[in-house]
Amino acid sequence: MSIGFETAPLVAWWLIAILGGAALALSGLALWRRSRGAWARLCLVAALLAVLINPIVSEETRKGLSDIALIAIDRSASQRIGTRTAETDAALATLRERLARLPDVEVREVQIGSDQRGTPVVSTIQQALGDIPRDRFAGVILLSDGRAADVPPPETMAAAGAITTAPFHLLATGQPGERDRRLTVLEAPSYAVVGKPVPIRIRVDDGEPGERPADGAQATVTLAADGGIPVARRVPVGEPVVLVVTPDKRGPNVLEISVEAGPAELTPVNNDAVVTINGIRDRLRVLLVSGEPHMGERAWRNILKSDPSVDLVHFTILRPPQKQDATPVVELSLIAFPTRELFEEKIGEFDLVIFDRYRQRGILPANYLANVVTYVENGGALMIAASPEADAPLSLYESALAPILPARPRGPDLTQAFRPALTPEGRRHPVTALLPNAGKPGEEAGWGRWLRMSDIEARSGNVVMTGAQGRPLLILDRVGKGRVALLASDEAWLWQRGFEGGGPQAELLRRIAHWSMQEPDLEEERLRAYAHQGRIEIERRSLKPQPPPVEVESPSGARRTIPLEDHPDGVATASVGAEEPGLWRVSDGTRVVTVAVGEVGGREMADVRATLGVIDPLAEASDGSTRFISGEGMPDLRRVRPDRPAAGASWIGLRQNGAYEVTAVTQVSLLPAVLALLLVLGLLVGAWLREGR
């Protein structure tokens, strides 16, 4: 209950001020002139003003409100290490019991998980405080290992908001002075040129970051690329170390870096790290050797020149040596084409060699073509767009290239019109699968016809397209470490010109070229896996239908066999739930791919040692405290006034705010109507009598 004095004016305050000012001025004038009855009139004016102001006595009936204490429970991944979960549950039970014994205290609880940043302690508590009135907030008790990702630095502690308006106490799980070996990637590139070494900076720690042990201890670090054979190296503990890696393929290169277990281990999770480097080609060098000029000669040149990453060397034979004409010598080129330099000294520097409608005409000696064979066997790429008269003695089928060609001529050229078609293998091969307007199996493709092709017979490789009379049109083959593509027609330019509707000429030639250069996305036999929305999506490309199931290994070592669902385009798929964060492995028996789920070696598990230092600034700003449960035990709970300390050696305090709500209000006027009337009339009569004497 509370009693107070208030006013309830009968008229506006501005009107009371005007009337009061005028009355006081007149009364003052009368007093100055010593007029009879001046004091009586002054008392009358005061009484009238008091009636207008209407003073009242207000009596409130109040109900005390309980204060609200918030218990924040850290359930992040680092809290599952050792006995921390058991410590948290035991401390939570004790807090609930002791808080229940405190009068006028309401208890609320909030669970704190983890995200990509780590453990969001401050943001989670701020959200929980959103519906707690500030005048009832008694304080926060945090049960955690002390690892928080969003505690602001002391100079910007205002960003913590309402958390610092009441005591913030940390009851830490774990042990003080814990040690744990961990691997940290300090610097790693996101992109790198294929075939060029790049540095990765790492550091191995057993204690504080950068702490060097007195005995100069070393640890063994292993590096494995794309699930391959790991390479080991000894590195000093506590010092930054540079590892040099060389991406060997275009696209993602997944590097798994691991360190052996240390003398003190809390968890092995932070002993591993995954770095993904996207390999890119700096410049692609292509050697295009054109024979007899024809309508499609510029098709290759236009496609290759349109790619800014391609350096094209175009060797065009406009006139064979044996041709005699009357062209003056001064009009001929005096700069000899560097044939020897290209085909002997620098052939290995090219990523792709293309022979477009080339025949033996005495330009390239046999030993130059033999160098091309060696180039392919060592990993080079060769593409041949066959010339007419494939069965002629001067064709490439009769040259030094013959041993690596995937076909041989059967007879004269086929000069009838035909529509290119995909073979069953072609519908599954990444070069030709899903080409636009290819049609469904058994249906004719929606492409324009070609008018001529070489009559050849395949002897190796994969026939992915057929032409006239069902003869092989496009053959893709592997030779040694390299690849050979053979297109048995020079009529692809008809598609570019839109003949009978045209066709996907540019896309087909681009895919052939990139497959020849071993583009990872165009591999016939390929295993791919990636993380998406908490699952691992698996893709197994194969030329053979119904590929066998794959084996999936979780970060904890659990293995399971997953069947694949085959599709007509040559890709079999499966989807697996990825409950565990970490490095997953998928294997088809021959290939192994690694998938990083979550942030492997990320912030949450990067440093799992229990600590008070991270929360200390927050506790100091709120007059709270931090302590280890294991060392000091559970503290007592007390209620403290806002101006008193909120923690002691063996106790922590919750603020006693004294908040209340008003349940009823009783108001009594000091000048009720009858009393006011009698007072005014009495003073009026008194003034009249005084003045009448």
Automatic annotation (TrEMBL):
The chain crosses the membrane at residues 12-32, 39-57, 670-689. The keyword Repressor does not apply. Signal peptide: none annotated. Keywords: Membrane, Transmembrane, Transmembrane helix. It comes from the Bacteria. InterPro entries: Class_I_gatase-like. Residues 543-567 are annotated as: Disordered. This is Glutamine amidotransferase domain-containing protein. It comes from Oleomonas cavernae.
